[in-house]
Specification:
It is an enzyme of class 2 (transferase). By secondary structure, the chain is of the alpha/beta class. The chain is 36% helix and 18% strand.
Length: 114
């Protein structure tokens, strides 16, 4: 699963991406996580299964969800205290909950995954 973490300038998203990638690895999950910015989002969305949106981008959530829906990508607005998740386990759980609890991308109609 490919997880995109988006923030304004890319600094805080880098920390969140690194932490969730580490937590996934510790749980034996083959997840990749990478950081992006609001400006790079149109390009980065094509490479993501899940988008984690920084809490300070709540104002852009509807637009992000609309753009992600076209690609079949799941969007999660991160809570304001997410930067306190130092080991990434809470963030990882948010991802797993968003994709149905198992952590696997649900099969799309027609038998393919996103």
């Amino acid at each position: 699963m490919r997880i995109l973490v988006v923030c304004g300038a890319g600094a805080s998203s880098t920390f969140v991406a690194q932490r969730v990638r580490h937590a996934a690895h510790e749980n034996g999950l083959a997840y990749s996580a990478f950081a992006g910015t609001e400006q790079s989002l149109p390009i980065d969305l094509d490479a993501a299964d899940v988008v984690l949106v920084g809490p300070h981008l709540a104002h852009a959530l509807e637009r992000i969800e609309r753009d992600a829906a076209i690609r079949g990508t799941t969007v999660v607005l991160l809570p304001s205290d997410i930067f306190n998740d130092l080991d990434g386990t809470r963030t990882l759980q948010l991802v797993r909950d968003a994709v149905g609890g198992s952590g696997e991308i649900p099969e799309a109609p027609g038998g393919t995954t996103s």
